[in-house]
Amino acid sequence: MEKDMADIHLTDLVSVEFLQNFQDAFADALGMAALTTDKNGEPVTEGSNFTRFCMNLTRGCEEGLRRCKESDAYGGNESAQTGQPAVYYCQSGLMDFAAPIIVNGQQMGSIIGGQILPEPPDKEKFAKIANELNIDEEKFLSALDEVEIVPEKQVRAAAQLLFIVASEISRMGYQRYMLMQMTTRLHDNVMHMMATIEELNASSTSVTENQTSLDEEVKRITGVAQSINELTKSISVISDQTKMLGLNASIEAARAGEYGLGFGVVAKEIEKLSSESKRTVNEINTFTAQINDYIDKTSQVSESTVSITQEQEEATKSILEYIEDIASMTDHLKKLSSHS
């Protein structure tokens, strides 16, 4: 699931290493201090080119640190409200700037810095600040002499350039981030598709195997039905012979007169048995004919099913090959987006 902009952090879009290198190069080129913070004002890089005046003296005392934090907060709020770089004086008298990093209308962080003077300092003014902060005046003014003097116009131009470049880099990072999110989702979906196709393919193979087993059973049943037919033919022949035997016995019983009465009863039973056997054989023939008819229909359906499942199996194999190619491409695209 894609993240909401509120859940995306600056370091999701641009690596800390890149931000640090970019910030260091900017600070060294223009002789200004710089620090990158996230949208909550928390530093994400180490400070670049920070002055001894600020780090060792002003921020080294409790009141000076409080004033510096108030100044940083002012610059961040000002740039956040306007969506543009803010150039201002800190409470210790140096010129600072805050350049917001904006992506899709949302502020992702800021690059704050400066710690310069636009013109030679008023030493009396800074001596007063040193006394307010209870800092040794001589050390304070000595550190002040180390502060770079950069025209305000140049500071504003540098802040504007930093704003444009940083926001553009972050926008590109956001596009790369979204591309990675989408390719990850695409890759995951393709993996699910592959799993589904493999299951379908396995199912098709199982159907084919089961159908082959069914064909073997049908063949066995066909053999049994044929054996029954052969047996009924034999029974039919025996029945006919029995009938003839019974008929002959009746004739002989009639010739023997009263001496053949008992033999005549036996002859009638033989004829009766022959008739019942013949009727049973006819019924068996009817059933076996129906069985053979059902077997033929089952074989036809079975052959059709095997053909269809084989075609389905081949089709799913082809689809699986295509999806594997897509998966390979999405995996490559995912790697490219994570390193671009």
Short description, anyone?
The chain has 340 residues and is of the alpha+beta class. It has helices at 10-13, 16-30, 52-58, 62-82, 123-132, 137-144, 152-256, 261-339; strands at residues 33-38, 86-89, 95-103, 106-116.
Describe the structure.
The chain has 340 residues and is α+β, with helices and mostly antiparallel strands. It has two domains: 5-150, PAS domain (Beta-Lactamase, 2-Layer Sandwich); 185-339, Methyl-accepting chemotaxis protein (Helix Hairpins). The chain contains eight helices and four strands, in the order ααβααβββαααα. The chain has a four-stranded antiparallel beta sheet with strand order 1-4-3-2. The chain is rod-shaped and about 165 Å long. The relative contact order is 0.09.
Characterize the main sheet: 4 strands, antiparallel
Question: What CATH first level of the largest domain would be assigned?
Answer: Mainly Alpha
Low-confidence segments, given as residue ranges, are none
Give the tally of β-strands: 4
Assign the CATH superfamily of the largest domain.
Answer: Methyl-accepting chemotaxis protein
Question: Which structural class best describes the helix and strand composition?
Answer: alpha+beta
Helix content: over 70%
* Count of separate structural domains: 2
Q: What is the overall shape?
A: rod-shaped
Query: Topology as H/E string?
Result: HHEHHEEEHHHH
Spatial strand order of the main sheet: 1-4-3-2
Fill in the CATH topology of the largest domain.
Helix Hairpins
Assess the beta-strand content as a share of residues. 5-15%
